[in-house]
């Protein structure tokens, strides 16, 4: 039996708008549709990652840039702009914040339990969703129990149950239905109801077999996304689908098409029979003014891939993706004659602050109150211990425990992942930087976690940003240049001169990478080789001296794998030769999540700095730097450097002298 797509009449629209004291504008397609035409608006959420509420559990405070409860208010308003609408999701629902971990690791999912994400989504009337790669992080049994609670179908055309791929994708024993065809009623331009068959097909990145091997090996297998699309879409058309919508939990990449592409949505758009592509996975926004610019076949203003309408609605509920289709009836069939695309945000930037543009949907807030309170208790409860304090007061002048623990966690994580790959015998290094190091953010802007119990929310003090882990393969020579760039944070120091300013305040601390796994000294008498923006300033300079690996001078030609984050690996900071071309592994996990898992695994972590870097001696020379007032409590912990207080600085900072 067919159902009417979320309808709204012009009379209802104008009456409701008048009652609210504001006129809601119909989309042009709804306003001008003729008797043989109909406007269909399709709304997308993607990469929610359990962020149902506008709350950052790591920082333990509200956050106006996230939350399905906010997107839900946007959904209600957007529905009123169209005569016909439907709501879909593009995957990555079950993991990504502490609420997801709480449900998976603490509360569990018994048969009949309803996951918080499903509580929220069931209230909003979703028509369909596909699987994202993070659906598998807690195992197949957990995922199955969660999906059972959905009031809408999940589809995936390239996830196979078992270990064998059929010769023809249509003969695969799929884990879920590859697609659904929804029999609906749609209002045309005259107000009459007409039947329409809407086909929805879904895809997951094949790389889940690497990212979640321990959960999936021997149980499922994946097929190439485009190969699956080319096999199943013709069958959807044979079964009478008027239009075909692709839910592609896969990003946008226009490089030469290859087998088992992770980001294949551009090529999905090129499959005959697909009318619109909903993308995700990359946590970016499309269409828009920032992401996916100047790519062949990609119109980032109109929102098209190979001429087909497409959208990527941000992440964590930050945007809602909209594709509007003008449909025209041709005999007994509907076809797309025009389309528009939009990614609509839930917040705006005003005076350098995030300002919400929509309120919360109170139904979701009420439905999740118990889960919210349980999650707060979970993040505030210790998950492990630290044998030493974690602080960043001296992170810019000496090897630092807050940076050390990030490197330890990254190394622990990637070592396990790479052990069965071609890089298993390549030396693994780790790069990390101090994020909270005073500067323009003030004298209190430092990591400060005492020894003893450590809670999940403390991880936000160690790692501020929702970056994801990356691994790059580089040479020993490139390791040196990476460190030369990092050393640009220091001013040149004249030997034999007292109390010279040490820190270049134009150089951000998050670009001061320390690389663990090697040892080295920084010769401050040399000028910086690179400026703060990565430009070559002094080609002959060599600040990095005595660079050693395994107790021997580093071989410039030797290969190394370096664990870092997506910002640095993607070229952030303009580090020499460090860009996406060097990436060998893109992890599905955030650096924060990796740190939490590391702490849970270890029980008690030992973040004490190992002093793998220091300043080269400059007898009779001293330099001055500023740090937080509480630094005095930790001077004795710094063994590799002679530090002494020299009085108060401005705006609450304290001044210290280092004897070089």
UniProtKB/TrEMBL annotation:
It is found in: Cell envelope. Residues 435-576 form the 5'-Nucleotidase C-terminal domain. The keyword Signal applies. It catalyses: a ribonucleoside 3'-phosphate + H2O = a ribonucleoside + phosphate; a nucleoside 2',3'-cyclic phosphate + H2O = a nucleoside 3'-phosphate + H(+). Keywords: Hydrolase, Metal-binding, Multifunctional enzyme, Nucleotide-binding, Signal. Its cofactor is a divalent metal cation. Residues 40-283 form the Calcineurin-like phosphoesterase domain. The keyword Glycoprotein does not apply. Belongs to the 5'-nucleotidase family. This is Bifunctional 2',3'-cyclic-nucleotide 2'-phosphodiesterase/3'-nucleotidase. It comes from Mesorhizobium newzealandense.
